[in-house]
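sanity check this:
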Amino acid sequence: MERLKKITLQQRRILLLLHILFAAIMFGVQVAFIILALTASVTDDAAMLKSCYTIMHLLADSSVRASTIGTAVTGIALSVLTSWGLFRYYWVIAKEVLTLLAIGIGFIGLYEWTLRGLDDNGSLTVHHTWLMIGIALQTISIIVMYILSVWKPGGKRKTPAL
């Protein structure tokens, strides 16, 4: 099997910069979700509640999707086009699993839970519990991915891999 050509240092830096920017957007949107969800959970104002869910739904449909796709694509490219590989290091594998979790929660969970919150035929239906669980899982997975990126625990796998 022929190996992919590795990228230059300049290309690697650009790709890494894009990866970090997408991850930063992802984390920033997550902070906004926390603030909006907490606001929605304590307000008695129907207009405020609807506004919070509207904004969260808009973010789930735009920034969450774009940053998650951007982070995943640049992360895969960094793995494939550098010496890290897709399955060579335990920390890379852990980030891949957490990325799948983030994609599932972001694309399906947050989108659906905020959409259901907006699905009002005369009254607002609120799903705070599922939304808060999703936000908590998403936040934890993003923070753990940052930690894995910095400390790179677990080292290299013993068996040859991609």
